[in-house]
Automatic annotation (TrEMBL):
The keyword Transferase applies. This is Glycosyl transferase. Keywords: Transferase. The keyword Transferase applies. CDD domains: GT4-like. It comes from Robertmurraya siralis. Residues 14-178 form the Glycosyltransferase subfamily 4-like N-terminal domain. Residues 188-348 form the Glycosyl transferase family domain.
């Protein structure tokens, strides 16, 4: 099978979509499946390689990690005609995604897509709610020609079906349990950030309004004093709110900036709890990474996150924006270390069952089904 992927976000950009597709092409390399990837340019990256083709781009105002590219349509057409893919996968609803749809139709190549981001839920954070109807109308139009639209969670599937989307199927997410594991000592990190408190609470993610970081800061402020004195917060990530949040930080709070790889795994592993109040996630990759490191999560009962966390077993679910519930859940778990240890084991066990190999193998089977169905229809039409 030959696969052409069109996405407006990819490495070195840092977000769940970019990281998922980087892992996917790594998997395709491992199993020997040919692909071509059409993506925006990135800092310190070559514009072209044998398999990856990059185009000049500019950040999208609602989601800077997704970039508005200026794809060279002549170059794309030439490459597709030479490569002759069996299927095209469009990942994002911007310029490169539009180019993928155009050439799938023009060259009669089976077309699938994926939906990764609830853009409409971001609007309230930027006072742009009036755009909601337009965005949904555009997204329905964008996805209408896909043989399948893949989504990461049942919540997202239900949302799209209720919005009039068709051919919606689940494509879940995995985690690398060899990279993300619980076997780290806290000594190095505690020395680096001069942490003396016995317990560490962490947040990892983009520092932007749609992550409900105002809720996170309020949670940190409202912890009871007997808990406040025992915990240290580590906030990892970059984004437009970085400077503002730095100005609000508490004495027991450290901002690390963006971290990745083993340093990120170490942070998850040495944390006693991961706190994630975001209510806009279609999945929540960071929750699964935290589980892999044996760290339970206190998260918002919303979006894809509520499908990962089993309340009372691998963490706690709280109503979105309900600071009191988050504070009570954190307080309860810090006070009950035996419960926290059991949750840690359950979280790790859950993550061990979510391998990328299985996730990507299932996706390839979905591709094969689409290709076979398309070929069968063509054969019948030619009878």
């Amino acid at each position: 099978m030959k696969i052409a992927i069109f996405t407006d976000t990819f490495t070195p950009q840092v977000n769940g979509v970019a990281l998922t597709f980087q892992r996917f092409v790594d998997y395709l390399d491992e199993v020997g499946i040919e692909y071509r990837l059409f993506v925006p340019d990135g800092h310190e990256t070559d514009l072209f390689s044998n398999q990856i083709f990059r185009f000049t781009s500019y950040p999208f105002f609602l989601y800077p990690e997704c970039r508005l590219a200026l794809p060279n349509i002549i170059h794309i057409k030439k490459e597709l005609e030479q490569f002759q893919p069996d299927i095209i996968h469009v990942a994002t609803p911007f310029n490169i995604g539009l180019a993928g749809i155009y050439y799938a139709k023009k060259l009669e190549i089976p077309l699938v897509g994926s939906y990764h981001t609830h853009f409409d839920r971001y609007l309230q954070y930027y006072d742009l709610q009036f755009l909601s109807k337009f965005i949904w109308k555009y997204l329905r139009w964008f996805h209408r020609s896909f043989k399948k639209t893949f989504v990461p969670s049942y919540e997202t599937k239900t949302e799209l079906i209720n919005r009039g989307f068709t051919n919606v199927d689940i494509w879940s997410r995995g985690v690398d349990c060899s990279l993300f594991h619980p076997h780290f000592s806290s000594t190095r990190l505690r020395e680096q950030y001069k942490i003396t408190e016995p317990y560490i609470l962490s947040y990892v993610g983009r520092l932007a309004p749609e992550k409900d970081l105002d809720v996170l800061m309020e949670i940190a402020k409202r912890l009871p004093s007997h808990i406040q004195n025992k915990v240290h917060w580590i906030i990892a990530g970059n984004g437009p709110l970085y400077e503002e949040l730095q100005g609000q930080k508490l004495a027991n709070m450290t901002f690390t900036g963006y971290i990745k790889g083993e340093n990120l795994a170490e942070l998850y592993a040495v944390s006693d709890l991961f706190v994630f109040p975001s209510s806009t996630e279609t999945f929540g990759n960071v929750v699964l990474e935290s589980f892999a490191c044996g760290t339970p999560v206190v998260g918002a009962k919303a979006g894809g996150v509520q499908e990962i966390i089993e309340d009372g077993r691998t963490g706690k679910l709280c109503q979105p924006g309900n600071v009191t519930e988050f504070v009570e859940s954190i307080t309860e778990l810090v006070n009950k270390q035996s419960t926290l240890k059991l949750m840690s084991l359950e979280a790790r066990n859950y993550a061990l069952g979510q391998s990328w190999e299985r996730i990507f193998s299932d996706l390839l089977m979905q591709y094969e089904g689409v290709v076979t169905k398309t070929e069968t229809k063509r054969m019948i039409a030619n009878l």
